Automatic annotation (TrEMBL):
Pfam family, one: Plug
Residue ranges of domain TonB-dependent receptor plug in the record: 64-174
One example of a Gene Ontology biological process annotation: iron ion transport
PANTHER family in UniProt: FERRICHROME IRON RECEPTOR-RELATED (PTHR32552), TONB-DEPENDENT OUTER MEMBRANE RECEPTOR (PTHR32552:SF81)
Localisation: Cell outer membrane
Protein's organism: Aerolutibacter ruishenii
Membrane-protein topology: Multi-pass membrane protein
Name assigned to this protein: Iron complex outermembrane receptor protein
Keywords: Cell outer membrane, Ion transport, Iron, Iron transport, Membrane, Receptor, Signal, TonB box, Transmembrane, Transmembrane beta strand, Transport
Family: Belongs to the TonB-dependent receptor family.
């Protein structure tokens, strides 16, 4: 693709340009308002104001301004705009302060980070410190976290530990997805979008009353895109990066006098390309793309394919027990089947050279999986100063993980296999209390005790690849020979390939909200949370490793205010957190190891702000910003480094990097997001509008150690939507663009010797039509 010489400079300044564009929009809007004021008949009209925002951060519906938690809500309208172009859940990255989402599996396996706190581990039995909750059911396995975004009422991002009410594996925060519920009123929508690379994005929903007490809603999604990357090598794939994905959700709601039941069944199917790894795309000694890099072409000789099927169902029951008490029961079931194969070395050889030291083609999959959850929760709804809630939670997960390796030099013949089984059982008892101490001051407290047990077994293993194995006599046997399960067990210091962990943890939180006046609240919060122990199975490249549970303590304080007669709103705060025994994944090095380690401590501190305002009655502006300063604090912790990059950390006597003082990986210091919607109403109930959105994140480290090549540059991406609505919002047609400045940056990497990287999504333009009924 040919670029203008100054296109890079333009893209680096895109955010500044976007802000500059806002100024004439505002001026035109204000001029129009002033003109209308002088020419139109003088009648009293209400100025446009922001609606109250309700969230469920405390497991019940409350005004956002009254909740002593740092929360950002993404509305259904914003989700429509940001999701244009068939993008997956990663489009939420940076769209709220301090949220980052990345993946080395493409659409299948998103990894979430809040305030710089997350987990880079790519294994399918890993956990994350950011919990994802979909319709009140936790999605524990990382594959489940990628369910498509469609027919949602809202997304809530809760920052900071949520251990009391949401449980384990939420010390960084929670991302909550809430589907549109059925109702007695008949309605729905249909949406069709087409775009670049033969992209189709089709979704819709329909629902209404079935009887006086029963209602239902069905929603569906289909997305596809052609391959947009040409494989110049005559390998098994001619093109790459295409996909087709479909999903469906069926809901039924029963509403009785003192009893309500909401049933939900959902499924997903994905068929397409796995994450595309590109060899030698980073210029040695810098983090620039190599000269002449073409994102539309690659040469790989390995097979690239990804497929995924998942299914789930849940039942949410609510009883009004009288006397101010309500009982909730939430039962959930999830299962999935996935397989993803990729050419990890990102090339087609020639191998065993300085540029391509070896061939690597692997696959991972989950052939069998089940997750069951059950929660019982009772809450009070008193008119007095005191209210409380408490409950019991149970979690059970049982699944197999398969890992494969292939010989690209032998036509992709399989040369290795491993299957592990992991089970996880957890029980929790929790409660929370709210006390209106005065008319101005409200105090809250929560607590949770969790018992959490994991068991892992290696059930089958063999390898005939280039990696050596250690035989029963503990002698090194050079490949290629068939290494067996017995050989692998003999290599373990304890001779045992199984591992189990058991955690017993207490989490708590204390918070206060003080009302300055009807429009301004101050809040403070201290909270704890934890992530359970993790197990890495032994394999060809590393021994079995275990990481102890990590515990986080967070302090934050902020202000939530409605301004200018509810024409503007600002929520801002400062925070500090400390993670003890933080679990980290050390990858790469000359042995390509992948092991778990615990850092003694890691810290994070920063500020966050959400602002939205009507600059004029037809001009809505939003701004979100987050600053996150993270640091690993462990003077004795060292990790292996890449063999062909420029490491900037000090090294110990074994050539490993000392990472004390480094920021956490995938943790940008700054994130900003800006949106502007400008509408011009017409006399017949229509509106011409323009909507632009921009997101910025600063540079970040890909790995635990620091190096010039594996430091991601800052990234700016923008979107634009220009359209017309008519029928008082019933119909909408729009032209849209995503990544409109065609920003191309490395956003992920593998620290092989050949500077392998992954890039962001390409520029996309399209047309979309939506009808509500």
């Amino acid at each position: 693709m040919t670029r203008l010489p100054d296109s890079r400079l333009f893209r680096r300044s895109a955010l500044a340009a976007a802000v500059a564009v806002l100024l004439p929009f505002q001026a035109l809007a204000q001029a129009r308002t002033q003109q209308d004021a002088t020419t139109a008949p003088q009648v009293e009209t209400d100025a446009k104001t922001l609606d109250a925002v309700h969230v469920t951060a405390s497991r019940k519906v409350e005004n956002l301004q009254d909740v002593p938690v740092s929360v950002t809500l993404i509305s259904a309208e914003a989700l429509d705009v940001l999701g244009s172009g068939g993008t997956d859940v990663r489009f939420l990255s940076g769209r709220v302060p301090s949220l980052n989402i990345e993946s080395s599996f493409g659409r299948a396996f998103p990894r979430f980070y809040i305030r710089g706190y997350g987990n880079t581990d790519f294994r399918l039995n890993t956990s994350q410190p950011v919990s994802l909750v979909y319709d009140d059911v936790v999605q524990e396995n990382p594959i489940l976290k990628g369910f498509p975004v469609f027919d949602l009422d809202r997304v809530e991002v809760l920052r900071g530990p949520q251990g009391s009410l949401f449980g384990r594996n939420s010390p960084a925060g929670v991302v909550k997805f809430e589907s549109v519920r059925p109702s007695q009123e008949f309605g729905g929508y249909g949406k069709v979008g087409v775009g670049s690379d033969n992209m189709w994005n089709v979704e819709g929903a329909v629902g209404g009353g079935l009887t006086d007490q029963w209602s239902a809603r069905a929603s569906a999604l289909f997305q596809r895109r052609d391959d947009w990357v040409d494989n110049t090598f005559a390998g098994p794939n001619d093109g790459l990066e295409g996909y087709d994905e479909s999903a469906i959700r069926l809901q039924a709601l029963y509403e009785g006098e003192d009893f309500e039941a909401l049933f939900n069944a959902h499924a997903r199917h994905l068929n397409g390309t796995a994450r595309l790894f590109r060899a030698n795309i980073i210029k040695h000694g810098s983090n620039d793309l190599v000269d002449g890099f073409d994102e539309d072409k690659i040469a790989v000789d390995g097979l690239n394919h990804s497929e995924l099927d998942s299914f789930g169902a849940n039942a949410r029951l609510r009883w009004n027990l009288g006397n101010g008490y309500t009982l909730h029961s939430i039962t959930g079931y999830e299962t999935l089947d996935t397989y993803s194969r990729g050419d990890i070395d990102g090339s087609a050889g020639p191998y065993f050279t300085a540029a391509i030291p070896f061939a690597s083609e692997t696959a991972d999959g989950i052939p069998d999986h089940s997750q069951w959850t059950q929660e019982f929760r009772i809450e009070s709804n008193f008119d007095g100063a005191w209210n409380w809630q408490g409950g019991l939670f149970y979690f059970n997960e049982d699944y197999d993980v398969e890992s494969f390796s292939y010989d690209s030099l032998a036509g992709g013949a399989q040369d290795g296999y491993e299957r592990i089984n992991q089970t996880n059982d957890a029980w929790a008892l929790f409660g929370a209390v709210t006390w209106a101490a005065t008319d101005k001051l409200e105090l809250r407290a929560g607590a949770r005790y969790t018992w959490d047990k994991k068991d892992l077994r290696v059930e089958e293993y063999w390898n005939t690849g280039f990696a050596p194995c250690i035989g029963p006599s503990l002698g090194i046997i050079p490949g290629p020979v068939r290494c067996t399960l017995a050989d692998l067990a003999a290599a373990e210091p304890d001779g045992d390939l199984s591992a189990d962990t058991e955690d017993k943890k207490f989490s708590w939180d204390l918070s206060a909200t003080y009302e300055i006046n009807d429009d301004v609240n101050l809040y403070g919060r201290v909270a704890t949370g934890y992530r359970g122990s993790s197990i890495q199975a032994a394999s060809a490249f590393n021994f079995k490793s275990l990481a102890e549970p990590e515990t986080a303590t967070s302090f934050e304080a902020g202000v939530k205010a409605d301004l200018w007669g509810n024409r503007a709103r600002i929520n801002a705060g400062v925070f500090y957190y400390e993670v003890k025994d933080q679990q980290l994944t050390a990858v790469g090095g000359s042995s390509n190891a992948n092991i778990l380690v615990n850092a003694k401590k890691a810290t994070g501190q920063g500020v966050e702000m959400d602002f939205q305002a009507y600059l004029a009655d037809n001009v809505l502006f939003t701004l979100g910003s987050g600053y996150n300063d993270t640091e690993i604090k462990d003077a004795d912790l060292s990790v292996s480094v890449c063999a062909s990059c420029t490491v900037t950390d000090p090294l110990d006597g074994n050539g490993k990097a000392l990472i004390d003082g480094n920021p956490l990986p995938q943790a940008p210091e700054w994130t900003h997001n800006v949106t502007l919607r400008w509408g011009i109403p017409t006399s017949n109930g229509g509106e011409f509008y323009a909507y632009t959105d921009w997101v910025y994140r600063s540079e970040l480290n890909f790995f635990l150690y620091e190096s010039k090549e594996f430091t991601a540059k800052s990234l700016v991406e923008g979107g634009l939507r220009v359209g017309y609505t008519w029928g008082y919002g019933k119909y909408d047609v729009a032209l849209y663009g995503r990544n409109i400045t065609d920003e191309v940056q490395v956003v992920g990497a593998i620290d092989f010797n050949n500077l392998t990287g992954m890039i962001n999504e390409p520029r996309l333009f399209g047309l979309e039509f939506k009808a509500n009924f």
